[in-house]
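The freezer alarm interrupted the setup, so I double-checked each line after restarting. Inputs confirmed:
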Amino acid sequence: MKDRVAAQMTVNGVPCERAVEPRLLLSDFLRYELGLTGTHVGCEHGVCGACTVLLDGEAVRSCLMFAIQADGHEVTTVEGLAPDGGGAGSESLHPLQAAFREAHALQCGFCTPGILMTLVPFLRDHPSPNEREIREALSGNLCRCTGYQNIVAAVKLACDAPPPPPPSPSLRR
Amino acid sequence: MRRNEDARLLTGRALFVDDVQVEGMLHVAFLRSQHAHACLRTVDVAAARRRPGVVAVYTAADLGDYWRPGPLLVPPPPIAGLVFNACTQLPLARDKVRHVGEPIAMVVAESRYLAEDALDDVMVDAEPLAAVVDVEAALAPGAPLVHDHLPSNVAAHVVQRKGDYGRARAGAHATIRRRFRYDRGASAAIENRAVAAQWDPRAEELTVWDTTQAPIPIRNGLASLLGLLESQVRVIAPFVGGGFGPKIMMFYPEELLVPWAALRLGRPVKWTEDRQENFYATTQERGQVHDAELAIARDGKILGVRDVFLHDTGAYDPYGLTVPINSQCTLLGPYDVPTYESEFTAVFTNKTIVTPVRGAGRQHGVFVMERLLDFAAAELGIDRAEIRRRNLLRPEQFPHNHEIIFQDSAPLVYDSGDYAPALDEALRIIGYERFVRDEQPRLRAAGRHVGIGVVCYVEGTGIGPYEGARVTVEPSGRVRVATGVGTQGQGHFTAFAQIVAEVLGVDVERVHVITGDTREFHWGTGTFASRGAVVAGSACHAAALAVRERILDVASRHLEAAKQDLELADGHVRVRGAPDSAVSLGELALKANPLRGAVRPGTEPGLEATAYFGPARGSTANGVHAAIVEVDPETALVEVRRYVVVHDSGRVINPLLVDGQIQGGVAHGIGNAFYEQLVYDENGQLLNASFMDYLLPTATDVPPVETAHRETPSPLNPLGVKGVGEAGAIPTGAAFAQAVEDALSDYGVEITEIPLSPNRLFELITQAGRGGAGGRPKR
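Predicted 3D structure, all chains:
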């Protein structure tokens, strides 16, 4: 068994300490050591963005970091977004989560946690982005289901910007 | 409308297979072939077995009687003269490996990290053989054989005919003939495959969590293979992170071996695919080469089509002929084609197995037909939209029998459709006339290369055999719906709830849908062929109607009123015009399940019913895609400026979900057209097996899609619905090719292939310009 080292960090506001192998990925640490399985793993090479979490408030790919690199830092996962932690049966959502639900911005939902965690710091820094900025912010996250259109719409909704007129209003219900 | 499933997905509470963690769980890694084609001499796992943390290592030899080729999942349809050589996948390779990524050994260890460490300890002695890569070379005399017991690499040969094409051709004004290449790619669901299994020795029950689109057939097959009762095996397909086809490929080696190992070791076992494995080991779609000819009259009417094509089926063909038969049948599109002669040869190659990926071969057929019409239009001097309009089937021609056999073994008969208005609507939305008359000439004069594409398609959807559903009103008044199909993001938790809610007069949020758990429902087949809403939706509807009858029976006795005087609304039953009489469904559910006293003979307890639905044949959806693109001939970059989809999938249950399916499908189609290609070298090595090199379209690549729905109900199910899951992805390549070709019309570029990467398009521009001045416009 490899030598273990201590990793101490705050995850979703809760301090935690574990002895881990130095090679343990942060994504695996969150998922299997802490049971925070809302952080998903889609490619393990930093492209798909599904594993995105916040490290001291900034979006990082947890599959490209070792758990011990988060030592002494503050980590936020999708489970930490909703006000009451999104506990069982909870319907209380972060405004961005609520906008995703309103705009049908998710289908299978596998990429969604990473997209939410990418957008949270983006919207903090760009409170009223235009469509091009939104799409660029999303361009590091892959979604195979939605074609991104409703994700863009959800971001606009979350910004409280008036939603764009649909392309052909008379044809929309 | 909000989806019922979203709160769970958005907060990270939804269970995906890799989230399953059980005390004492072991983890699996597979040693996979690095060769596309090789003789396996020895596989030495002794060192791997000695590594600390490793619990077991298995090779083909260790599987004993459990080693056997997988089942043939889709037997070929009854077509006269059909040749089909079934060679199904193996749990672990023995004697020979036939594609890169084929599993050779299975390591079970205390962690995935340790299991992967142990892969390095396995010594494989393999003698590489020449690989069969190109489908045409595969058929050349003396080509190496993928399966040594067969005389050639032919997996199948199928000819289907309608009318006398030769005669039609003899009377044609013109014949248009081209060679087309259409390549598809990976499904690339963001969730890779995963299987977890746990044997409970006390309950004597095996639980399997599987990212499958077909949990019930998996349960039945595993029970049979493992010698258990079907009721002892529970297969759960929880939330699945995208399916797109390959997750319906059943009895993947990993799917067979993980439950087997859990039983054998008496410990829970899990395997999760990584992205690189997904590129090698998850089935994919790839290329076809078509030599096609269109016989056409002077007025642009189609007289007939002849098409001969090769289909790359990969190293094994467990999924039968679904993909090439879809290509063969979907080529006919929405058109009146009096004669048709179609012949295909499916070819074994040393590549990953081909099974349906969203569209399932329909793309290839649509591309061939739409391109032939474009070339015919140019030759005859007829407008591209007009030549299509002249050939569309008219409403009075339905049901329309194409006189050939479809993938579901039934004749290819279109149930209903109203095609010309869909074309007109697409032309109107995109402003076709104005674009061609004013905008395009103006932009061209300004030196810009803009083009428009308009293509039509049909999609055979909602095929049988059947699905079922059980609807239960609980004492709380909430309604439970259990159905067998799995769900991969389509919104079944909401669409099925809507269907039931409407029949029972309850809020959609009060209907709790359970899918993909064989303990909840164990009859049915799965989610494929755009059939969830059509087949399972109809079963939900039938079960809800039966429950409604029971509700009315109980309420009629309770309220002492005739059934016809009762109405269901807001979760209550009341006598019409007497609001005070309202009794809640929950109260009636309690009354229907008495704890004491006597019931009438024949009374069944509760407000519950199970119903099944099997359509006579599939329903045919249709639509039109129209695109405006701009091409920069210097860089060969293409920008999609507008993308319009007019779609008719019969009655729409939920327009939000239908739009979502179309938007996602178009994105997948744009990937297919311009970004995605599985590139194999001459040794059968996949050169771009990562998301760094295999490009999925991102948010900056996919345009907004403008959608409009038309609703021509299907007569084949009580809801009048048709499927929509694949439509967005089907004609995208054809629309893209036509628009790009139009944009580059002054270069004389002819596009007969998809995908068109920027590099490939640049080559085509350069080649076309070579006759002139090195890539400069001809005119």
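Quick read of the result. Chain B touches chain A through 64 residues (CB under 8 Å).
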